[in-house]
Structure formats: C-alpha cells, structure tokens
Automatic annotation (TrEMBL):
Coiled coil: none annotated. This is Uncharacterized protein (TIGR03085 family). The lineage of its organism: Bacteria, Bacillati, Actinomycetota, Actinomycetes, Streptosporangiales. It comes from Streptosporangium sandarakinum. InterPro entries: CHP03085, DinB/YfiT-like, Maleyloyr_isom, MDMPI_metal-binding. It holds the Pfam family MDMPI_N. It comes from the Bacteria.
Length: 217
C-alpha cells in the first residue's frame, strides 16, 4: 500500500470517528467541509480553480456545498476512501505523486484540531518521502515569509549533512532556523505553525513574524 492510500484510509476512518461537525485546522471548515473539499479536488477538476485563484472561489465554494447536499457526510467519506477518479485512474502513480502530502496535511488538520493530540510516529520511509517533497516545494511554500528560513531536519540518516537543510524566504535580513522532524516541518510550511512541533531559533522578533506569516500554497 502506498503512503497516499494509507493516509487516505486513516483519514477516512478518522472522519467517521469525529463526525461531520468536528473542527479542523482549516479556518472555518468542519470535517464535513474538508471531506467535500477533498472530493471536489479529486473528482471535480472543472470546479477546483477557486482553490488557488481567488476570483474563481465563488464557484468552487458553490460546488463544494452542492457535493455536501448531494452525497451527505458518509457518502463523501466513502468517496474519499475509494480514491480519485478520472485522470488519476488513467495515469499510474499520479495519486501517489500529487496527493500524498495533501492527504497527510489534511489528516493532521483533523487530528490536531482535537484535544489531546500528539504527533504520530511516522515510518522512516514516510519521513524520507515527506522531506523529499518538502525539498521540492519548500521555496514555494515559504515565498511569503517575511524573514529568511533555514529548515533543519532532525532524525534523518546519520551524516545527512546538506541533505538535511533547506533554505527559503528572503535571502537578506533576519533569518530563523526551524528544526523538526519532516512531518512537523511540512505542517509548519503549510501554514499550520501553531500546531507544528518544531524548534525555531532566531531573534524573538523574527521568530514571531515567521510564526504569524501566511505560509503555504
């Protein structure tokens, strides 16, 4: 089973466990809203433009609400569990390439919105994959950072050296070093700074500015 499929199954189980009205880390969204977002993203590409383009957000929101009305919570969860359709089914490996990080982040969006959460112990292979994806996305995710950022992976292979460091944000001025396991750094860079178990190092002002910044896609 791929990591994408494992995250999909675990998230679907969690959706059913917490129920449709459970909060998530996605501001203003319940678990019901998040399930509809995932189905829209994977099955209604014609309406997904508003996820990234503000002027299209109205149509995306309307379609998301229509999915909730049509399928109900349990139906949406089953669609999430069964996986994407259309193009994803035609291109081998596309689900793994496109959705692994998305599913991990949204799985944690539900987990970390519940009381008493703790970080999961991820397998070394999954951590390596998340770090690899972060190395590809890091500069994009940190493009709105007001300070320079050094991401330092902890718990990596011995002797990782430069492989365990990633730079982002402005090149000049104040800089903050953020250390943590790959999954925590992913959550941090996707704009979930208050819910990421990381260790920032830098001036108090620079650290505060980074923690309040709008990071992510």
């Amino acid at each position: 089973m791929t990591h994408a499929r494992a995250e999909r199954a675990a998230l679907s189980d969690l959706f059913l466990q917490v129920g449709p009205d459970a909060p998530t880390l996605c501001e203003g969204w319940t678990a019901f809203d998040l399930a509809a977002h995932l189905v829209l993203r994977e099955r209604r590409l014609d309406a997904a433009g508003g996820i990234a383009i503000r002027r299209l957000a109205g149509r995306t929101a309307a379609v998301q609400e229509s999915l909730k009305a049509r399928h109900g919570y349990a139906g949406l969860v089953e669609l999430v569990r069964s996986g994407p359709a259309g193009l994803y089914g035609l291109v081998p490996g596309l689900d793994r390439a496109v959705n692994t990080v998305e599913l991990f982040v949204h799985h944690e969006d539900v987990r970390r919105a519940q009381p008493g959460w703790e970080p999961r112990e991820l397998s070394p292979g999954f951590e390596e994959l998340l770090w690899s994806r972060l190395r590809g996305l890091g500069r994009l995710l940190l493009r709105r950072s007001p300070v320079g950022v050094v991401l330092r992976r902890t718990g990596g292979p011995a002797g990782g050296g430069s492989r365990d460091v990633l730079l982002g944000g402005p090149r000049g001025g104040a800089r903050v070093e953020v250390s943590g396991r790959p999954g925590e750094l992913v959550m941090f860079c996707f704009g979930r700074q208050p819910y990421a178990r990381v260790e920032p190092a830098g001036s108090p002002e620079a650290v505060a500015r980074l923690r309040d910044a709008s990071l992510g896609l």
